[in-house]
Every structure is written in C-alpha cells, then in structure tokens.
Amino acid sequence: SDTVKARYVDKELSNQYVPRGNRRKVRAQVAIYEYLKALEQPGQ
Questions:
Q1: Domain ranges for the chain
Q2: pTM of the predicted structure, to 2 decimals
Q3: What residue ranges in the chain does DSSP mark as E strands?
Q4: What is the pLDDT of residues 5-36, one digit of tens each?
C-alpha cells in the first residue's frame, strides 16, 4: 500500500507528520517505478 503522507522519524522515534504545504502529492511506489523505467530506456 502506498500513501502520500511523509513522516520524520527522529532519534526519539516521535514519527511526526511532515506538513506538505503547497507541494504536490507523490506516490513513492509509482515514482520509483517511473524512475527505474526511465533508466531502462536512456534514449527516450
């Protein structure tokens, strides 16, 4: 399962949410897939 909520994990393991503000949502699994796919096709 992929979510768009980022968290900070500090040395106390407080696991605080990262405020997104005006930044766009990023789905990590999709972003990593697209990145790896682009690496396989360097000419495009």
A1: 7-40
A2: 0.48
A3: 7-8, 16-17
A4: 788 888 988 888 888 788 887 788 888 999 99
